[in-house]
């Protein structure tokens, strides 16, 4: 016979309080690499029904938490041990910080009773993490564990989203306290809505600009997906007949073939438009720091973060708010006018479509090239043709992924993943792991550069171990080709291969060794059949495609760092 629990005398450990706080936030998986400082968290996760996915490198754990947030819209969580465990995760946290991705990294720490005594793996984690997080703190007592975990999650959503960090000393995690004395925030009771509709007067002004614009265009950036504003963005461009360009996680907002979906004419539009609306994208290196926009155009910037608006370039109107709410309000305000300007923009859209066709036709012979070694354009063309509406595409690399940015078009919103503005190589396996764990119904395809895969590729074994099938494609040129181009341009061909040349690695054999599916491709005609076999294998797969090392993407050749 089960005895009733006396809640007045029941105790709970710090690790179990962490798990309860994670459960309250809706976390259903943590990505981790084990260490003695953190094992009580695992024990709590087992009791709370939270999956524990253990990886081979802490950078992967942090990247997976970032990827999980992007796919699900919920914050991700990684748990690592103290010292080198936490420093290994720094890159993943920094990437999430620049990409505005909400996640919590929990790091171990030596016992408070050994503070400043030189305990095992003791480092000033909070000092290191503060510049690359929205919140970083030490949990001072077991009673405060769940409270401060919920505080860290709350800070992830202050302004534009981002990561938080907590270190929890070993004795704080292991200690048991009366359950009644521990503050455990309840689900949905400690976070308010952060959605802002923007200044109503500014929204009205935007509506007025839209009504009178002859040649407007809009760039839908990552915050469109962050805010889950897809429907509002679609309604906006259709109601007002505005051509739309997409970047980052905003790719896929409009499906390929949509009359308002444009990709190859962006520079032309930014040069000739009279109204340019930038949504959820900073004027950073990807935008030429704002200098790629026509100096005579009226420029409007919409962003979650006040600090981003007007940074690096003057603007005519800035609106701080949720992308969906602002676009919806502006469309509604403009549609209330007698003439919202939509009809007279037909010629402008036709003008841009002609530029698109010309650019596509110019590049098409290379996309269909039968050359050996394989032209990278042919590889990314085959991938684009292979993707379905349920395919999540991940780009992890330099030059090869730059090619894909011109050609690959996700068929659905939220189905494009790349590192973001930090340009971190090595995110691919981790993002695939997170995507497939969170959405097992989705097909996941990742295009790697051979250099990028080499950084974190051992976690392919984690994908095998947890039964997470995905299609990996390695554009293999045995080089860090994006860097090689810059070295050749700056120092000449005789010094072009210093520090950037890799071995001719058979990654297909690596995949098979670890229990996955592997194939080698040297002929472009074999790319599609290999993709089909990888899909049918039901295993984590690597297709090793040998691409021409002497061919560079236009984006590589135009990089500002080489100018």
UniProtKB/TrEMBL annotation:
User: A Gene Ontology MF term for this entry?
Assistant: thiamine pyrophosphate binding
- Keyword field contains Metal-binding: yes
Which positions fall inside the Thiamine pyrophosphate enzyme TPP-binding domain? 396-545
Task: Please provide, in alphabetical order, the Gene Ontology terms of the cellular component aspect for this entry.
Answer: acetolactate synthase complex
- SUPFAM superfamilies listed in its UniProt record: DHS-like NAD/FAD-binding domain, Thiamin diphosphate-binding fold (THDP-binding)
For the biological process aspect of GO, one term held by this record is:
L-valine biosynthetic process
Q: Which residues form the Thiamine pyrophosphate enzyme N-terminal TPP-binding domain?
A: 13-122
Protein name in UniProt: Acetolactate synthase
């Amino acid at each position: 016979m089960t005895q009733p629990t006396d809640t007045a005398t029941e105790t709970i450990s710090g690790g179990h309080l962490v798990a309860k706080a994670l459960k309250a936030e809706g976390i259903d998986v943590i990505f981790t690499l084990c260490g003695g400082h953190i094992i009580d968290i695992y024990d709590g996760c087992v009791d709370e029904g939270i999956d524990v996915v253990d990886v081979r490198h802490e950078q992967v754990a942090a990247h997976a938490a970032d990827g999980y947030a992007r796919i699900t819209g919920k914050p991700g969580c990684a748990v690592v041990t103290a010292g080198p465990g936490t420093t290994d995760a720094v890159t993943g946290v920094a990437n999430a910080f620049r990409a505005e991705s909400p996640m919590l990294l929990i790091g171990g720490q030596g016992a408070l009773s050994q503070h400043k005594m030189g305990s095992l793996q003791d480092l000033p984690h909070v000092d290191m993490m503060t510049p690359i997080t929205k919140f970083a703190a030490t949990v001072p007592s077991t009673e405060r564990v769940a409270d401060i975990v919920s505080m860290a999650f709350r800070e992830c959503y202050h302004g534009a989203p981002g990561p938080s960090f907590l270190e929890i000393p070993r004795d704080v995690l292991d200690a048991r306290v009366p359950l009644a004395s521990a503050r455990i925030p309840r689900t949905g009771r400690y976070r308010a809505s952060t959605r802002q509709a923007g200044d109503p007067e500014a929204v009205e002004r935007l509506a007025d600009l839209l009504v009178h614009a002859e040649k407007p265009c809009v760039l839908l950036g990552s915050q469109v997906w962050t805010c889950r504003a897809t429907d509002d963005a679609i309604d906006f461009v259709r109601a007002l007949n505005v051509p739309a360009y997409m970047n980052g996680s905003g790719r896929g907002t409009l499906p390929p073939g949509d009359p308002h979906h444009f990709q190859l004419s962006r520079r032309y539009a930014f040069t000739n438009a009279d109204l340019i609306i930038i949504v959820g994208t900073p004027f950073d290196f990807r935008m030429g720091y704002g200098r790629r926009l026509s100096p005579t155009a009226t420029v409007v910037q919409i962003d979650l973060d006040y600090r981003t608006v007007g940074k690096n370039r003057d603007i005519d109107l800035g609106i701080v708010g949720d992308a969906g709410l602002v676009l919806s309000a502006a469309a509604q305000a403009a549609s209330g006018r007698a003439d919202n300007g939509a009809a007279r923009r037909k010629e402008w859209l036709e003008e841009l479509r002609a530029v698109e066709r010309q650019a596509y036709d110019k590049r098409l012979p290379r996309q269909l090239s039968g050359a050996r070694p394989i032209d990278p354009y042919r590889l990314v063309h085959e991938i684009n043709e292979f993707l379905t509406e349920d395919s999540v595409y991940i780009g992890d690399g330099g030059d090869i992924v730059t090619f894909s940015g011109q050609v690959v078009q996700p068929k659905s919103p939220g189905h494009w993943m790349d590192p973001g503005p930090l340009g971190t190589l090595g995110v691919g396996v981790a993002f695939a792991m997170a995507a497939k764990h969170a959405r097992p119904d989705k097909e996941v395809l990742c295009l790697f550069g051979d250099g990028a895969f080499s950084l974190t590729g051992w976690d392919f074994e984690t994908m095998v171990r947890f039964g997470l099938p995905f299609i990996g494609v390695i554009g293999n040129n045995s080089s860090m080709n994006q860097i090689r181009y810059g070295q050749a341009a700056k120092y000449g061909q005789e010094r072009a291969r210093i520090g950037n040349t890799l071995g001719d690695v058979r990654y297909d054999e690596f995949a098979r060794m670890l229990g996955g599916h592997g194939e080698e491709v040297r002929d472009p005609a074999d790319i599609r059949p290999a993709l089909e076999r990888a899909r049918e294998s039901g295993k984590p797969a690597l297709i090793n495609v040998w691409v021409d090392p002497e061919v560079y993407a236009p984006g590589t050749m135009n990089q500002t760092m080489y100018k």
